[in-house]
Write a structure and sequence with these properties.
By secondary structure, the protein is mainly alpha-helical. Among the domains are: 165 residues, no CATH class; 135 residues; 179 residues. 56% of the residues lie in helices and 3% in strands. The protein is built from 45 helices and five strands. The chain has a five-stranded mixed sheet, covered by helices on one side. A hairpin with a 2-residue loop joins strand 1 and strand 2. Helix 21 packs parallel to helix 23 and helix 38 runs parallel beside helix 40. Pfam families: ZSWIM4-8_C. It comes from Salarias fasciatus (Jewelled blenny). This is ZSWIM4-8 C-terminal domain-containing protein. Keywords: Metal-binding, Zinc, Zinc-finger.
């Protein structure tokens, strides 16, 4: 056999490559597959050149594998990653003294000095076997899951510059060639070179070898760390299990904060990467991660408290479950491996703390994953591992399945294509009739384990099956169409939706198909480190008879099929939230596709089919009352179709606007398919936890249509009708009205009157909806409507003023609507001429009078203000107030209007209203801080200023209503200070004389005040405490001042004091204070 060292053929990028020798070809294959011990056992004598080539080819050859074990990301983009740093160290000449002895590589790597750190050299050692690194040690003391930069640098040196590495056979081979003297010399030199470390060990070994009974002498031969692995050793890459456990535990303890959720997702991605490289450490690492997840102390806490875990945490558990499905579905795993995984999965699933598939530990209803009877409480407990356990029963031995995944050209013979077939469609293409999520899990497993071509073939077979099913469903619907449309509801629906499913079947097919269409290096970083979306190109489907069909069109088609599937809303908050999140994820992926003619053709075809597919489609004419709404999906379809087929875009979006669960409850007969055990809850929608989100998506769809229809009256009218029919939330309709208004009134251009009218109509609907119900934003809504009507113009304002009673409360109509309409700003904004202003003012006055009649308490003042400039209207408003004063109005409302009248120069009317207010008032003896006191003092001052007659008229009312002595004495004092009648009313004479307290009307007031003081004194003395004695004495002093205003006042006061002393003689201390002050 001719042997030579590899020349150019081993160098990457070399233009000239000589063919590999037969020895190298054979050595390569043996080095990758056989443990060196097996080679030695198989052949009695292996020539040294052969040994050298096997040893040479046993080191890993793929840099991707080194990258996989040295950073979280599969493509190292960050400069701080060990892989990138390792490359830098290699390229800057920091790797030296590289030596390969058998299956052991050693060298030194020097970290250059930095401003803060001196230069450091690390010794690195790597053991390898069958193209896998089996152990690493580095002087840097790195403690991490991944290899340090120094191990990376040394590994890459060996891969990139193999001819520069000194290569020696395993040390045992070299020793075998030495005679006794040479061996002794070697040992002694070795001890001398490292005597401090080696001498004790050397002496111990020498003692054992010289002892005939020692253990070392019972074993034939001696170990050789450079001789590669033995036959029984596992052949897998070095993975620091303790570090994996430690890091997962640490990330979990941070509870998803500080980016730990992102780190755990990176670990899952690493598992997927390992599976794709068919590296057995994928399953090993996943086992370690799962053990730590199951040991998370929060699990038992959540279970005890019955509380749900956080969304981030739930998503991590979901990914864990999905990864296990991938692992157990490995098409080439050994049966003993699978049974080991099954045992482990069952053990975890049986633990009480194991999270359930359909959500948290709370009191959510069980998930409907199978059509089980409605009353079935014995529904099996499904954990996050249940699907992986079930997947262990699946196998790959089916001959039809094997043919599908192994050939692009597997078809049925043309003569067999007549009639029904379970294996092929009418065109002869293979079908795979499996439960769809399970079939897609197989695709995911193939793709995850590096069988991408096989995954594509199975994905195509699944799509052909879905197409055929869709066609057959449409045929069934055509026969039932008339009956279903008459009933207006259907019980036909999918109990297990594909969107939001734990196995994410649609996402899996989409990724599998688009991956093959992605242009190389399309996902790169832009200047600002923002990841740009991938760029796709059409790749024809291998073996497809349709030349226009590409994997990209298939990806779009299957995503549309899945999103458009009519399906029941699942039970439980988490499952529902997952449906919404998964929808958004798929739409985000669809938006990355740049729609060309081929994709638009697919889009249009599928949109039409979804509209015509009846109850099997969420966009069919008839759907189940509890179907998942299509708003998010339809919004994507609308935007995508609009530039190409506007009619179809609107048809889809308008069809999707419905939200049947909010319509009046369907009759029980509409639900009843005996074999569909859907738990329909009798009350309205208690189990729709995501209703708020769904309604906002419905609103988004409507807003998108409104924006697009700007300027098109016919389309706007249709969209408006759909909104009025289907949206039931006043807040959301208000949001739509605001959106429409904003779009209709751009800052730089004239307003779009068609859209403005729609905004106004929506606003009017909101007013009617919220008129009789409480809404905290009502005031804002009313103000906004007036603004909108002002933008529309005079006729709109007149209209809302004339029909106010259907839109506003009387208070809103007068204080906000009419007041704003009549403001100077509105007049200027509309540039009205005099007749137009008068028309508007007349409408506002009519409104004001109607409101005052309906609600005089709250509207009378506003009505008077609005009618000021029209004498007849003002008189009418005043009369309404007078008529309402005796029945429905409070003293404070009447006092306010009375003060307004005085301010407007109507003192006599003001007096009349003040008198009416007094009849409603009652001030008790102890209410000396009552808010109405100021009004009473003002009313008396007004009467006094008008003259003696008015004062005489109001005093009896005051005496009747006010029983508080201090207030009465204050009024009395004010009335005696100046002469009455100072208001100077024309036709009245003012005498200029002060009024006497001995004569009417003040005599009556004085008597009432004295009487109030006497009554108040007795009331206060009933429950007086010593700390109030001083205050009481001051009160008596004020009383004496009032008593003395009467002719015999001093006699009355003395009698009053004597009377107190007699009645309250038991209060000795107080009476002593009374005697001291008053004798």
């Amino acid at each position: 056999v001719r042997t030579h060292r590899p020349s150019r053929h081993g160098l990457p990028g070399s233009r000239y490559r000589s063919p590999e020798s037969l020895l190298d070809c054979a050595a390569k294959a043996v080095a990758e597959k056989w443990a060196f011990e097996r080679v030695e056992e198989r052949f009695e004598r292996i020539p040294e050149p052969v040994q050298r080539r096997i040893v040479y080819w046993s080191f890993p050859r793929n840099e991707k594998e080194i990258c996989m074990y040295s950073s979280f990301q599969s493509v190292g983009t960050g400069d701080g990653l060990p892989f990138r740093r390792g490359i830098r160290l290699l390229e800057t000449g920091c790797v030296e003294n590289v030596l390969q002895v058998g299956f052991h590589l050693s060298g030194t790597v020097t970290e250059p000095a930095t401003s803060s750190e001196p230069e450091v050299t690390h010794k690195v050692a790597i053991s390898f076997d069958r193209c896998k690194i089996t152990s690493v040690t580095c002087g840097c003391g790195n403690r991490d899951i991944f290899y340090c930069a120094h191990v990376v640098a040394l590994s890459l040196y060996r891969i990139r510059k193999p001819e520069q590495v000194k290569l020696r056979l395993p040390i045992s081979e070299t020793l075998f060639q030495m005679n006794r003297d040479q061996l002794q010399k070697l040992v002694q030199y070795l001890i001398t070179a490292h005597h401090t470390e080696v001498l004790p060990t050397a002496q111990k070994l020498a003692d054992e070898i010289l002892s005939s009974n020692s253990e070392i002498n019972q074993v034939h031969g001696a170990p050789d760390p450079t001789a590669g692995a033995s036959i029984d050793d596992d052949n897998c890459w070095h993975l620091d299990e303790d570090q994996v456990r430690e890091q997962v535990k640490q990330f979990l303890s941070q509870g998803g904060y500080y980016g730990s959720g992102k780190q755990l997702n990176s670990m899952f991605a690493k598992v997927r990467e390992m599976l794709r490289m068919r590296d057995s450490n994928g399953a090993r690492m996943l086992t370690l991660i799962t053990e730590q997840f199951m040991a998370d102390p929060r699990l038992s806490l959540w279970r005890q408290q019955g509380t749900g875990m956080t969304d981030k945490c739930r998503q991590l558990w979901d990914e864990l479950g999905a990864l296990w499905v991938c692992v157990v579905l490995n098409p080439h795993c050994k049966s003993e491996e699978k049974s080991g995984w099954l045992k482990q999965l069952k053990k975890w699933g049986d633990m009480d703390v194991c999270p359930l598939e359909d959500g948290n530990y709370g009191s959510e209803l069980p998930n409907i994953t199978n059509a089980l009877p409605q009353n079935s409480l014995s529904r099996p407990r499904r954990t996050v591992f249940s699907r992986a356990v079930e997947a262990c029963d699946l196998h790959w031995q089916d001959s039809h399945l094997q043919r599908i995944i192994s050939s692009d050209f597997y078809m049925s013979p043309s003569y067999q294509r007549e009639g029904e077939s379970l294996l092929f469609n009418p065109q002869g293409l293979p079908l795979w009739l499996d439960h769809v999520p399970t079939a897609c899990a197989r695709v995911d497993a193939l793709r995850s384990h590096g069988y991408s071509r096989e995954a594509l073939r199975l994905a195509v077979a699944i799509i052909n099956t879905l197409r055929l099913q869709q066609q057959r469903q449409m045929d069934i619907y055509k026969h039932q169409k008339k009956e279903l449309l008459q009933r207006g509801v259907t019980s036909t629906t999918n109990l297990e939706g594909w969107v939001g499913h734990p196995l994410d079947p649609i996402g899996c097919l989409f990724i599998t198909l688009t991956e093959t269409c992605r242009k190389p290096d399309s996902q790169h970083l832009s200047l600002h480190n923002i990841i740009l979306p991938p760029v796709y190109a059409h790749v024809p489907v291998w073996g497809s008879p349709d030349s226009g069909e590409s994997y990209l069109t298939l990806a779009l088609e299957v995503a549309l099929m899945g999103m458009g599937q009519q399906r029941i809303m699942p039970e439980g908050l988490y499952a529902q939230d997952k449906v919404c999140r998964n929808e958004e994820q798929i739409v985000a992926k669809l938006q990355e596709l740049e729609l060309d003619d081929l994709l638009v053709q697919t889009l249009r075809k599928q949109a039409v089919q979804l509209l015509e597919a009846g109850p099997f489609s969420g966009l069919g004419e008839v759907i189940h009352r509890e179907s998942v709404p299509m708003h998010t999906f339809a919004k994507y379809l609308f935007s995508a179709l609009l530039p190409h087929d506007a009619d179809l875009a609107y048809k889809v979006a308008l069809r999707a606007m419905r939200l049947p669960v909010l319509e009046s409850s369907a009759g029980s007969g509409d639900v009843g398919h005996p074999h569909h055990g859907i738990s329909i809850v009798p009350s309205r929608y208690p189990r729709w936890f995501t209703l708020g989100h769904l309604e906002s998506q419905q609103c988004e769809l409507a807003s998108t249509m409104l924006t697009a229809a700007k300027g098109d009256m016919l389309r706007l009218r249709t969209v408006l009708e759909a909104i009025q029919k289907n949206i039931h939330s006043s807040s959301l309709i208000f949001k739509l009205a605001q959106d429409a208004f904003k779009i209709a009134t751009p800052a730089d251009n004239p307003p779009d009157i068609t859209l403005l009218n729609v905004a106004l109509e929506l606003g009017l609907q909101v007013m009617r909806m919220t008129l009789s119900t409480l809404n905290w934003r009502r005031r804002e809504m009313v103000r906004w409507l007036v603004t909108c009507a002002t933008e529309v113009g005079l006729r709109a304002l007149v209209s809302i003023l004339q029909s106010w009673y259907t839109l506003f409360t009387p208070t809103e109509a007068t204080s906000i609507v009419a007041a704003t309409v009549m403001s100077h700003n509105t007049i200027l904004r509309l540039s009205l001429d005099y007749p137009q202003r008068e028309e508007l003012a007349s409408c506002a006055r009519t409104l004001a009078l109607q409101c005052a009649m309906k609600d005089p308490q709250n509207c009378a003042l506003s009505a008077l203000t609005l009618c000021e400039k029209d004498h007849i209207a003002f008189e009418t408003a005043y009369q309404i107030v007078i008529d309402a004063a005796s029945t429905g109005m409070t003293y404070s409302q009447l006092f306010t209007i009375a003060r307004y009248m005085e301010h407007r120069g109507y003192p006599l009317r003001s007096f009349k209203l003040a008198s009416l207010a007094m009849t409603h008032l009652n001030l008790a003896y102890n209410q000396d801080t009552h808010p109405a006191i100021n009004d009473v003092l003002w009313a008396c001052a007004l009467s006094h200023s008008l003259g003696k007659n008015e004062l005489a008229a109001i005093i009896p009312l005051v005496v009747k209503s006010v029983h508080c002595a201090t207030v009465l004495s204050d009024i009395l004092r004010r009335c005696t200070m100046t002469a009455p009648g100072l208001a100077g009313i024309p036709g009245r004479r003012n005498s200029g004389k002060l009024m006497s307290t001995d004569k009417a009307p003040l005599r009556q007031l004085l008597d009432a005040t004295i009487s109030a003081y006497i009554n108040t004194t007795h009331s206060r003395l009933t429950h007086i405490s010593p700390r109030h004695y001083g205050e009481f004495i001051e009160f008596l002093s004020k009383a004496r001042v009032t008593f003395l205003l009467a002719q015999d006042g001093h006699i009355q006061f003395d009698q009053f004091i004597d009377n107190l002393k007699q009645i309250y003689k038991g209060k000795k201390k107080l009476m002593m204070l009374v005697r001291e002050r008053f004798g």
